Protein backbone atom coordinates (compact mmCIF):
# COMPACT_ATOMS: atom_id res chain seq x y z
CA UNK A 1 0.00 0.00 0.00
CA UNK A 2 1.40 3.38 -1.04
CA UNK A 3 2.08 6.19 1.40
CA UNK A 4 0.70 9.13 -0.61
CA UNK A 5 1.90 12.72 -0.35
CA UNK A 6 0.40 15.74 -2.12
CA UNK A 7 2.80 17.54 -4.48
CA UNK A 8 2.30 20.67 -6.59
CA UNK A 9 2.74 21.01 -10.35
CA UNK A 10 5.53 23.54 -10.95
CA UNK A 11 5.71 23.28 -14.74
CA UNK A 12 4.46 21.33 -17.75
CA UNK A 13 6.60 21.68 -20.88
CA UNK A 14 6.74 20.06 -24.33
CA UNK A 15 9.81 17.79 -24.43
CA UNK A 16 9.66 16.15 -27.90
CA UNK A 17 7.11 14.66 -30.27
CA UNK A 18 4.77 12.65 -28.03
CA UNK A 19 6.68 13.49 -24.84
CA UNK A 20 5.99 16.10 -22.13
CA UNK A 21 8.10 17.18 -19.18
CA UNK A 22 6.28 17.39 -15.84
CA UNK A 23 7.94 19.14 -12.89
CA UNK A 24 6.55 18.59 -9.40
CA UNK A 25 7.38 20.71 -6.37
CA UNK A 26 7.87 18.44 -3.35
CA UNK A 27 9.03 21.20 -1.00
CA UNK A 28 7.67 20.93 2.52
CA UNK A 29 6.72 17.26 2.11
CA UNK A 30 8.33 14.10 3.59
CA UNK A 31 9.44 13.26 0.03
CA UNK A 32 12.43 15.64 0.18
CA UNK A 33 15.62 13.57 0.29
CA UNK A 34 13.91 10.24 -0.42
CA UNK A 35 15.20 9.94 -4.01
CA UNK A 36 18.58 8.28 -3.46
CA UNK A 37 19.37 6.23 -6.58
CA UNK A 38 19.18 7.27 -10.26
CA UNK A 39 16.74 5.08 -12.14
CA UNK A 40 14.14 4.89 -9.38
CA UNK A 41 10.47 5.58 -10.09
CA UNK A 42 7.47 6.87 -8.16
CA UNK A 43 3.76 6.26 -8.37
CA UNK A 44 1.65 9.28 -9.24
CA UNK A 45 -2.10 9.37 -8.73
CA UNK A 46 -5.05 11.63 -9.47
CA UNK A 47 -8.64 11.25 -8.27
CA UNK A 48 -10.80 9.42 -10.82
CA UNK A 49 -7.73 8.63 -13.00
CA UNK A 50 -6.03 6.01 -10.86
CA UNK A 51 -2.28 5.66 -10.40
CA UNK A 52 0.73 4.87 -12.56
CA UNK A 53 4.47 4.35 -12.40
CA UNK A 54 6.78 7.12 -13.65
CA UNK A 55 10.58 7.24 -13.71
CA UNK A 56 12.35 10.15 -12.08
CA UNK A 57 14.32 12.08 -14.71
CA UNK A 58 16.03 14.37 -12.21
CA UNK A 59 19.10 13.27 -10.24
CA UNK A 60 18.93 12.40 -6.56
CA UNK A 61 19.46 15.53 -4.45
CA UNK A 62 19.42 15.38 -0.64
CA UNK A 63 17.71 18.75 -0.32
CA UNK A 64 16.16 19.11 -3.78
CA UNK A 65 12.54 20.21 -3.97
CA UNK A 66 11.77 19.50 -7.64
CA UNK A 67 11.13 16.16 -9.25
CA UNK A 68 11.17 15.94 -13.06
CA UNK A 69 9.38 13.37 -15.19
CA UNK A 70 9.05 12.59 -18.89
CA UNK A 71 5.49 11.63 -19.76
CA UNK A 72 4.24 9.74 -22.78
CA UNK A 73 0.55 10.15 -23.48
CA UNK A 74 -1.80 7.27 -24.12
CA UNK A 75 -3.34 6.45 -20.76
CA UNK A 76 -6.10 8.40 -18.95
CA UNK A 77 -3.71 9.29 -16.13
CA UNK A 78 -0.80 10.41 -18.33
CA UNK A 79 -3.12 12.35 -20.64
CA UNK A 80 -4.57 14.21 -17.66
CA UNK A 81 -1.18 14.90 -16.07
CA UNK A 82 0.00 16.45 -19.33
CA UNK A 83 -2.94 18.88 -19.28
CA UNK A 84 -2.44 20.09 -15.71
CA UNK A 85 -1.64 23.71 -14.94
CA UNK A 86 0.96 24.96 -12.43
CA UNK A 87 -0.50 24.85 -8.94
CA UNK A 88 -2.48 21.66 -9.49
CA UNK A 89 -2.06 18.88 -6.95
CA UNK A 90 -0.74 15.39 -7.72
CA UNK A 91 -0.38 12.60 -5.16
CA UNK A 92 3.02 10.92 -5.16
CA UNK A 93 4.57 7.92 -3.46
CA UNK A 94 8.12 7.72 -2.22
CA UNK A 95 10.69 6.54 -4.78
CA UNK A 96 10.63 2.82 -5.43
CA UNK A 97 12.76 0.28 -7.26
CA UNK A 98 16.44 -0.49 -7.04
CA UNK A 99 17.48 1.99 -9.74
CA UNK A 100 20.93 1.83 -11.34
CA UNK A 101 23.96 0.81 -9.23
CA UNK A 102 26.04 3.88 -10.04
CA UNK A 103 28.72 3.09 -7.41
CA UNK A 104 29.65 -0.02 -9.45
CA UNK A 105 30.59 2.26 -12.37
CA UNK A 106 33.06 4.38 -10.42
CA UNK A 107 36.52 4.17 -11.97
CA UNK A 108 35.17 2.19 -14.94
CA UNK A 109 33.83 2.90 -18.40
CA UNK A 110 30.06 3.22 -18.62
CA UNK A 111 27.82 2.38 -21.58
CA UNK A 112 24.33 3.88 -21.42
CA UNK A 113 21.43 2.78 -23.64
CA UNK A 114 18.06 4.51 -23.90
CA UNK A 115 15.17 4.71 -26.32
CA UNK A 116 12.10 6.94 -26.28
CA UNK A 117 10.91 7.90 -22.83
CA UNK A 118 13.50 5.52 -21.36
CA UNK A 119 15.94 8.43 -21.53
CA UNK A 120 14.32 9.77 -18.35
CA UNK A 121 16.01 7.21 -16.09
CA UNK A 122 19.29 7.53 -17.99
CA UNK A 123 19.15 11.33 -17.69
CA UNK A 124 19.06 10.88 -13.91
CA UNK A 125 22.26 8.82 -14.23
CA UNK A 126 23.95 11.38 -16.51
CA UNK A 127 23.13 14.31 -14.25
CA UNK A 128 24.51 12.37 -11.29
CA UNK A 129 27.72 11.65 -13.21
CA UNK A 130 28.11 15.31 -14.19
CA UNK A 131 28.23 16.24 -10.51
CA UNK A 132 31.38 14.13 -10.11
CA UNK A 133 32.59 13.47 -13.65
CA UNK A 134 36.20 12.64 -12.73
CA UNK A 135 35.05 9.60 -10.73
CA UNK A 136 34.14 7.72 -13.92
CA UNK A 137 35.98 6.58 -17.02
CA UNK A 138 34.68 6.98 -20.56
CA UNK A 139 30.91 7.44 -20.69
CA UNK A 140 28.95 6.80 -23.90
CA UNK A 141 25.21 7.25 -24.38
CA UNK A 142 23.49 5.32 -27.19
CA UNK A 143 20.21 7.18 -27.62
CA UNK A 144 17.50 5.96 -30.00
CA UNK A 145 14.23 7.53 -31.10
CA UNK A 146 11.61 6.67 -33.67
CA UNK A 147 11.91 9.99 -35.54
CA UNK A 148 14.35 12.92 -35.37
CA UNK A 149 11.79 15.05 -33.52
CA UNK A 150 11.24 12.41 -30.83
CA UNK A 151 14.51 13.03 -28.96
CA UNK A 152 13.81 14.45 -25.51
CA UNK A 153 16.37 16.72 -23.79
CA UNK A 154 17.88 17.72 -27.13
CA UNK A 155 18.80 21.11 -25.69
CA UNK A 156 20.82 19.36 -22.96
CA UNK A 157 22.95 17.18 -25.22
CA UNK A 158 25.67 19.82 -25.61
CA UNK A 159 25.96 20.04 -21.81
CA UNK A 160 26.42 16.29 -21.66
CA UNK A 161 29.03 16.37 -24.42
CA UNK A 162 30.82 19.27 -22.69
CA UNK A 163 31.14 16.93 -19.69
CA UNK A 164 32.91 14.42 -21.97
CA UNK A 165 29.89 12.17 -22.32
CA UNK A 166 29.82 10.84 -25.86
CA UNK A 167 26.33 10.87 -27.37
CA UNK A 168 25.48 8.50 -30.24
CA UNK A 169 22.00 9.14 -31.61
CA UNK A 170 20.11 6.90 -34.02
CA UNK A 171 16.66 7.05 -35.60
CA UNK A 172 14.67 3.93 -36.44
CA UNK A 173 12.07 5.54 -38.76
CA UNK A 174 13.58 8.66 -40.42
CA UNK A 175 10.98 8.74 -43.22
CA UNK A 176 11.24 11.93 -45.30
CA UNK A 177 12.74 13.97 -42.46
CA UNK A 178 16.09 14.52 -44.12
CA UNK A 179 17.85 13.03 -41.09
CA UNK A 180 21.57 12.76 -41.85
CA UNK A 181 22.62 10.78 -38.79
CA UNK A 182 22.65 7.10 -37.90
CA UNK A 183 19.66 4.90 -38.73
CA UNK A 184 18.50 1.73 -37.00
CA UNK A 185 18.49 0.33 -33.49
CA UNK A 186 20.92 1.43 -30.79
CA UNK A 187 22.48 -2.02 -30.39
CA UNK A 188 23.59 -2.02 -34.03
CA UNK A 189 25.83 1.01 -33.52
CA UNK A 190 28.29 -0.22 -30.94
CA UNK A 191 31.06 0.11 -33.51
CA UNK A 192 34.49 -0.73 -32.13
CA UNK A 193 33.68 0.27 -28.57
CA UNK A 194 35.58 -1.77 -26.01
CA UNK A 195 33.61 -3.51 -23.30
CA UNK A 196 36.70 -4.26 -21.23
CA UNK A 197 36.24 -3.09 -17.65
CA UNK A 198 32.87 -1.61 -18.62
CA UNK A 199 29.47 -1.46 -16.99
CA UNK A 200 26.25 -1.02 -18.98
CA UNK A 201 22.91 0.53 -17.99
CA UNK A 202 19.88 0.15 -20.28
CA UNK A 203 16.34 1.52 -20.20
CA UNK A 204 13.67 1.36 -22.88
CA UNK A 205 11.39 -1.05 -24.64
CA UNK A 206 11.98 -4.68 -23.73
CA UNK A 207 13.00 -5.67 -27.28
CA UNK A 208 15.71 -2.99 -27.29
CA UNK A 209 16.95 -3.98 -23.84
CA UNK A 210 17.18 -7.64 -24.89
CA UNK A 211 18.95 -6.68 -28.12
CA UNK A 212 21.48 -4.59 -26.20
CA UNK A 213 22.12 -7.40 -23.72
CA UNK A 214 22.64 -9.90 -26.54
CA UNK A 215 25.02 -7.59 -28.44
CA UNK A 216 27.08 -6.81 -25.34
CA UNK A 217 27.32 -10.43 -24.28
CA UNK A 218 28.49 -11.39 -27.77
CA UNK A 219 31.33 -8.92 -27.26
CA UNK A 220 32.25 -10.54 -23.98
CA UNK A 221 30.57 -8.32 -21.41
CA UNK A 222 29.23 -10.61 -18.67
CA UNK A 223 25.53 -10.47 -17.84
CA UNK A 224 26.27 -9.28 -14.29
CA UNK A 225 27.85 -6.12 -15.73
CA UNK A 226 24.61 -5.19 -17.54
CA UNK A 227 22.08 -3.45 -15.31
CA UNK A 228 18.43 -2.56 -15.67
CA UNK A 229 16.59 -0.27 -13.26
CA UNK A 230 13.91 -2.75 -12.23
UniProtKB/TrEMBL annotation:
It comes from the Bacteria. Residues 113-212 form the Oxidoreductase FAD/NAD(P)-binding domain. Transmembrane segments: none annotated. InterPro entries: Flavoprot_Pyr_Nucl_cyt_Rdtase, FNR_nucleotide-bd, OxRdtase_FAD/NAD-bd, Riboflavin_synthase-like_b-brl. This is NAD-binding oxidoreductase.
